[in-house]
Specification:
By secondary structure, the chain is an alpha/beta fold. The protein has 28 helices and 29 strands. The strands form 9 sheets. Strands 7, 8, 9, 10, 11, 12 and 13 form a 7-stranded mixed beta sheet that branches. The chain has a 4-stranded antiparallel beta sheet with strand order 6-5-14-16. α19 (about 605-625) packs antiparallel against α20. The two termini are about 60 Å apart.
């Protein structure tokens, strides 16, 4: 045991945290050796983007994973928490392109090969920033096994999966409507499009019939796309248009002849019941066009600039074209009216540019055959979502899934393993680069320039990181993983893709449980974002408050699946908790300096109570962790440590520690040392640094609290009778303290107390605990009675659990002085009541002041009136 003086007077997280993390890492305490005999527990870390820096979402996510990992490791599981980072296609390429722009060059001037060299160099220089920051949080993952989505093993797995799916006919190429980002210059998937409600305009246009005798009115929010219209659709049962179905219309300005078609997609009750069909620039129109064999006319290029199919508008930006075309339509009599219109607009999740739906040749994965087993897995319970309500969200998405567009027009990422023969046009899909065409032997082969969607590789993460497609020891031992911990915002992005990929290639689910947490919002409940400027840097929080404080604040504000608010008051409360633990530990250690082990401890009422409460708490914390209720487990520990161990037990044992009775002192020391050590072991997964520092100073076995045995519940020490008895003693002490405070008794002055019990059992309990009452409630003489009519006169009283407590005033306070003081206070309260009533009766104030200000004033008035009632009651009691 280290000397207690080594525990400094004030807790300094900086010094403690750096010291212990280095110690843990150097001693390889996070490293997992494959052990086929012990039960296993494994987690793969959701890989943060290599471009990223730690944000509060990461901090919450990784704290939850670390709690589960440290807990299972202490329980003796063969525990692996595997870390890694994601290559983050669009984000990394954007960073490198920014760097090149500053140097006055670009990727095209550099060429693909040199650009990729720069991207790898950027990754080496900046890519480990987030993993260093994760260390500051205290994450106990196995850094020896750290992976990267583009490392050799993961890249091998990606190629293997692509080729197998291609050979199975589940990967195909097709012209398809995709979401195109004109700024990032790539496709992005449906779930990467962020929709925001915006106020726009609805333009009503007239399309005349070919013979000029009639017209159909259509409405659009994007009039520039009319240049790509190839039909107008109406519902087959809509009688208004029955005579026009099969006839032709003339497209304004361009004069293209387009048909009127009937399709059940059209909602005849919405708008005019007629819809312009622009197959190349709207996903729904694209599907209609496929059903009716309509041509697809692309009117914009990849920069969202109007192309040669836009006629007189060629070369204009899409928004400039909109202004010109609206003006021309109005001048030519085709614009019926313009209305204000709120609608959802899709933006790129990376750069916030408005997305342009566009027809383009892309690679796709057929989703229906892959989705079916993944739907079954959730329905049959092979994968369980926590909270359970997220199962429905997952199933809704999976049951309505569209084919997945997996190609991206980027250079950084997993290049599609497909080559095209320049001589005969053969398409070759292969894990290795072919030397010649398999059909005509030509060596003129060109690889597909596109890369795969980032989620394609991260979808394989639970098994590619364990060595698949090789049959490794890690794969045999740690797959399927035990749980995936992730935010509610990436169920579709990532969770669903891991499940269907694993079922296809591993024939088993990737994890048994999916533990979903919410988002970290600001104090006002808003999402943190750069535009709002309300983001909080967790590293700054750690530097100021310590990692343990941040961790504890995040998890105790969290219930599974729900968002939580980041509030400084809660951060301060968590820091106060750390300081409370530290001060309690210093007190215990100062009183252990002459400690010698007791062979046969003689436990008294307080000892039995704290041992019972500790074991009850250990039992509850373990049960809560098993149910993923980590926040509730943290709160249980907080209540036990602060309210029971620090505020009660330490105070209860002080007389024994300072007394002369050796056996009693030794027993108190033993209980203090054991309960504090065991509590530090229970708290360790939540607050790893402070618990390690304190544990190392206490009598212990082993090198680190990390590898100590998780406290086993000693059922024989759980004593509900003792807990109830102590609850009565504590209630009595609280009541006496409150009475003393109410009548302003000087803190050091001892009082006489009379207690009248309504049951004989209660009298016996109080008699057993009277030394605690005397010590903690500053009682000089305690008189115990069983139901008597001879109750003290001139006394203040309280009742707890049917027990009457009398505090006689004689000799305790000067009654006349106390009445004078109370009357003075009453005068001040009356003045405030008069002021507030006047204000709240003022019609001018009520008319001008905001409602929340009026409510606050009403609340103040109610509080003053309650104070007045209490003061009058006490004055009348004294005068009586």
């Amino acid at each position: 045991m280290e000397e207690s003086k080594n525990l400094s007077k004030v807790y300094d997280p900086k010094q403690v945290e750096e010291k212990w993390y280095t110690y843990w890492e150097e001693h390889k305490f996070f490293h997992a050796e494959v052990d086929m005999e012990s039960p296993h527990f494994s987690i793969v870390m959701p890989p943060p983007n290599v471009t990223g820096s730690l944000h509060l979402g990461h901090a919450l996510d990784n704290t939850l994973q670390d709690i589960l990992t440290r807990w299972r490791r202490m329980q003796g599981y063969n525990t692996l928490w595997l870390p890694g980072t994601d290559h983050a296609g669009i984000a990394t390429q954007a960073k490198v392109e920014e760097q090149l722009a500053k140097e006055g060059t670009n990727k095209h001037q550099l060429g693909r090969e040199k650009f990729l060299e720069r991207a790898w160099a950027w990754k080496e220089q900046y890519g480990n920033r987030i993993t260093q920051q994760l260390r500051k949080l205290g994450t106990s993952c196995d850094w020896d096994r750290e992976r990267f989505t583009m490392d050799e093993g993961c890249s091998e797995a990606v190629k293997e999966v692509f080729v197998r799916l291609y050979e199975k006919g589940l990967i195909y190429q097709d012209n398809y409507i995709i979401n195109w980002c004109p700024k990032c210059q790539t496709t992005i998937s449906d779930i990467e499009v962020e929709h925001t409600d915006e106020q726009g305009k609805l333009y009503h246009l007239r399309y005349h019939t070919e013979d000029g005798t009639d017209y159909i009115e259509v409405a659009t929010t994007r009039p520039e796309t009319m240049l790509g219209d190839t039909a107008v659709a109406v519902h087959p049962d809509d009688k208004r248009y029955a005579h026009l179905i099969g006839t032709n219309l003339v497209l304004p300005i361009i004069k293209r002849i387009i048909p009127v078609i009937a399709d059940e997609y059209v909602d005849s009750k919405f708008g005019t019941g007629a819809v312009k069909i622009t197959p190349a620039h709207d996903p729904n129109d694209f599907e209609v066009a496929r059903r009716h064999d309509l041509p697809e006319v692309v009117v914009m290029d990849k920069n969202a600039v109007m192309n040669e199919n836009a006629g007189p508008y060629q070369g204009l930006d899409r928004y400039e074209c909109r202004k010109r075309i609206v003006k021309d339509l109005e001048n030519q009599g085709f614009l019926q009216k313009i209305e204000e219109h709120g609608h959802a607009v899709g933006h790129c999740y990376r750069c916030d540019t408005v997305i342009e739906p566009m027809v383009s040749k892309q690679w796709f994965v057929k989703m229906k055959p892959l989705a079916e087993p993944a739907i079954r897995a959730a329905k049959e319970g092979s994968v369980k979502f926590v909270p359970e309500r997220f199962t429905k969200i997952y199933l809704d998405w999976m049951e309505n899934i569209r084919d997945w567009c997996i190609s991206r027009q980027l250079w950084w990422g997993h290049r599609i393993p497909v080559w095209y023969c320049q001589d005969c046009g053969e398409v070759i899909c292969s894990k290795k680069e072919p030397e010649s065409c398999t059909k005509c032997n030509s060596d003129k082969l060109e690889q597909d320039p596109d890369v795969l969607d980032t989620w394609f590789s991260s979808g394989l993460w639970p098994f590619s990181t364990l060595g698949w497609p090789q049959d490794t020891k890690d794969l045999k031992r740690y797959y399927p993983t035990s749980v995936l911990v992730t935010g509610r915002d990436i169920i579709f992005f990532w969770v669903a893709r891991m499940i269907f990929s694993a079922l296809e290639f591993m024939k088993d689910v990737p994890f048994r449980d999916v533990f979903i947490h919410g988002l970290v919002l600001d104090a006002q409940g808003r999402k943190m974002s750069k535009s709002l400027g309300n983001g909080v840097d967790p590293i700054e929080v750690i530097d100021e408050y310590g990692a343990d404080t941040l961790r504890f604040m995040l998890i105790t504000g969290n219930t599974p699946g729900n968002d939580l608010r980041f509030q400084l008051e809660r951060l301060e409360a968590a820091r106060n908790f750390a300081n409370k633990i530290w001060n309690a530990a210093r007190f215990v250690l100062m009183n252990l300096e002459d400690y010698q082990e007791v062979a046969e401890p003689n436990y008294n009422m307080a000892d039995k109570w704290i041992l019972s409460r500790f074991n009850s708490t250990a039992n509850r914390v373990t049960r809560l962790l098993e149910k993923y209720e980590l926040g509730e487990a943290g709160r249980e520990l907080y209540d036990f440590i602060w309210n029971e161990f620090c505020d009660w037990y330490i105070e209860l044992v002080k007389p024994r520690l300072y007394g002369k009775e050796d056996q009693s002192k030794r027993t108190a020391q033993k209980v203090l040392a054991e309960v504090l050590k065991n509590t530090m072991e229970l708290l360790h997964p939540f607050m790893p640094f402070i618990t390690e520092e304190i544990w190392q100073h206490l009598p212990h076995q082993g090198q680190t609290v990390m590898l100590a045995n998780w406290p086993k519940v000693q059922e024989n020490l759980i004593n509900k009778k003792i807990e109830e008895e102590m609850a009565l003693i504590m209630d009595i002490i609280r009541a006496i303290r409150n009475l003393r405070s109410e009548i302003n008794v000087l803190p050091g002055k001892e009082a006489e107390v009379v207690i009248v019990a309504n049951k004989k059992d209660y009298l016996e309990i109080i008699n057993k605990g009277q030394s605690y009452i005397k010590s903690l409630a500053k009682v000089s003489n305690l008189e115990l009675e069983l139901e008597t009519n001879d109750k003290p006169k001139q006394a203040v009283t309280a009742v707890v659990q049917g027990v009457e407590i009398f505090l006689p005033l004689k000799g305790l306070i000067d009654i006349d002085k106390e009445v004078a003081r109370l009357e003075k206070d009453l005068g001040k309260v009356n003045q405030e009541i008069e002021r507030l009533e006047k204000k709240l009766n003022n019609q001018g104030f009520l008319a001008k002041a905001p409602q929340d200000v009026i409510n606050k004033e009403k609340e103040k008035l109610a509080n003053y009136q309650a104070n007045k009632d209490a003061l009058l009651s006490r004055i009348n009691a004294f005068k009586a």
